[in-house]
Amino acid sequence: MTDFIDATVATRSANHLSISAVERDTGLSKDVLRVWERRYGFPLPERDENDERQYPMSQVERLRAIKRLMDSGHRPGKLLGLNETELAALTAQHSRPHRAGEEQAETLPQQAVTALRDGSLVRLRGLLSKSLLKEGLQVFVTETVAPLNRTIAEACTRGTLAAFQERAYVEQLTQVLRGALLSVPFAHDAPRMLLATLPNETHALGLLMVEALLLPEGVACVSLGTQVPIPDIAAAAAAFDADIVVLPFSASFSAKQAIASLEALRGLLPSHVPVWAGGELIRRVRRDIPGVTPTGALADKLAALRQWRVERAGQTQRKQPT
Fold it and tell me: 246 - beta bridge partners?
């Protein structure tokens, strides 16, 4: 029986890819895959014995085709609504030999890199604003900003862009996001979320992206900004009557320091106030901390929000007199 189970698992593993493998294979980030799953119902991964996502190869092939068409300028919302025949026809259309004299349209990441290299921040700002207007705030953050950030970072790593050009990009994107957030009505209902980063964490853009994701969900967000001392975060949570404390972490933050800081903060907060820890670093931390919910991907925060509201509704119902 054990041999049969092992063989079954081995066969399944050979015909499926983990979410990390799909990310490497297709170039689609984990954030995007999770958001598509929630928003569009595709992909629909299976789950292994550890409840980890496992993607059948048929879905991986479809994701590859969608990514190629996205790189040609098509929007994911349209592509994910196509059936197999329509997707194959569109793929065949874009697979035709490129004729001399025809110009290939640049993708948004390519246009952004070009604008930065040309020193045209006005063009870059226009590209970001146009994409935001077309997609809406949440889709813009999860499907455009997240992969665009990686493209800019990779360009700096390769030497295609300089560090000051990356800073200029972050500043332009920050201004675009702040402008968009001003148009979202401030919520007064639960949950009330306190956003901050710990000392030595300067990832301000991460705070803005979290706020842009949650505000349209009717969440009341209070941001303290970056590098906030742990006692101040606890004091602010009490002063603002926060239901949840949200802390994003960049990949460069020390995992050891993150764990120690989360445990220290957890000890200062009331037991009924959970801490959501997110970002690239949290995906690599395997240690469970009581009272701390790992939300490595942006989409994980939406799932955690739904779960919080379900639990809160259950608590409210139990308190009502019979």
Answer: 195, 276
Domain end: 64, 90, 116, which one?
Answer: 90
Q: Looking at the domain assignment, is residue 99 inside a domain? A: no
∠ Cα 114 145 230 (to 5°): 125
Q: Evaluate whether residue 214 is within a structural domain.
A: yes
Element (H, E) at 309: helix 298-319
Q: Residue 48 falls within a domain, yes or no? A: yes
Tell me how far apart the alpha carbons of residues 24 and 248 are, in angstroms, rounded to a whole number.
23
Same-domain status, 231 and 171: no
pLDDT digits (tens, 9 = 90+) for 305-321: 888 888 888 776 666 66
Residue 142's domain comprises 108-182
Please tell me what DSSP assigns to residue 187.
P
Q: Distances from the Cα of 14 to the Cαs of 3, 18, 27, 64, 80, in angstroms?
A: 16, 11, 20, 18, 26
Listed residues 58, 90, 122: the one ending a domain: 90
Alpha-carbon distance values, 224 to 38, 183, 189, 293, 300 (Å): 29, 20, 19, 20, 22
Identify the bridge partners of residue 295 per DSSP, sorted by sequence position: 278
Phi/psi at 96 (nearest 5 deg)? -65, 145
Contact yes or no for 203/227 (Cβ under 8 A): no
**Among the listed ranges 101-105, 168-172, 233-237, which one has the minimum average pLDDT value?**
101-105
DSSP bridge pairs for 244: 193
Put simply, whether the predicted model's pTM sits higher than 0.85 gets the answer no
Domain presence at residue 101 = no
Distance CA 191, CA 220 (A): 6
- Based on the fold, state whether residues 85 and 114 are members of the same structural domain: no
